[in-house]
Here is the input.
Amino acid sequence: MIQFVATPIGNLKDITLRALEALKEADVIFCEDTRHTLKLLSAYDIKKPLQSCHKFNEKEAAEKIVALSREGKKVCIVSDAGMPVISDPGNEVCKFLRAAGENYTVLPGANAALSALVLSAFSSDKFTFLGFLPEKKRERDALLNEYKTARETLLFHSAPQDVDRDIRDICAIFGDRKACAVREITKIHESAEPFTLKEGLAGEKRGEYVLVVEGAEKAENPLNALTPREHVMHYMAEGYDKKEALKLAARDRGVSKSALYAETIDV
Here is the structure.
């Protein structure tokens, strides 16, 4: 049996009875950082063999997980905090297990992004989780351009050393919008600080952040007045390759990329 187990994102009491039961019954626990997981297990007097499963060894870990499962062992997979796979290691393991025909399940629990959305009081009927922004400027700008006209609430993860840069870069593409910086969720110093992208976030930056950003107002994109061909060529002139330009233009116009492709075969 293979189980992906959600763990607390701050307060150690935020763990489900089912998760504790699974961890106590596990033959081995794969974790992002053995030292971090040991603190959680020690709090509940759980002593189990630990093996590493982080972004640099996921394939190797996945092979071990399959082998152990086929020996009849009970395997749990956890990340340092929250749900494995969501902005954490584990997705490559999932893919490997699915390709190998190995069944697995998930034990749900704490989630920073959803908790932040509630704390922000922003619209929650539609939202998109974008995780950490890419490190490379070109990739960051491409992602933000893709979502700058999205009307749903947007959620980003941000490390304390990156949060000012992330806010500046989001503002540069989105323009000024209402936002909320949520940090230290479930901990003593939990806070949800409203601000605008233009003014930025004041004060010392400590703790992991979830940035909740208001969706775009409904407005007709002036680029939609162009012909489909001109629209795609506009983005290509800005430095995007044809594939990226088609994707951006299709999002602007609310159509599929294939609908634009026929108009730009010779571009």
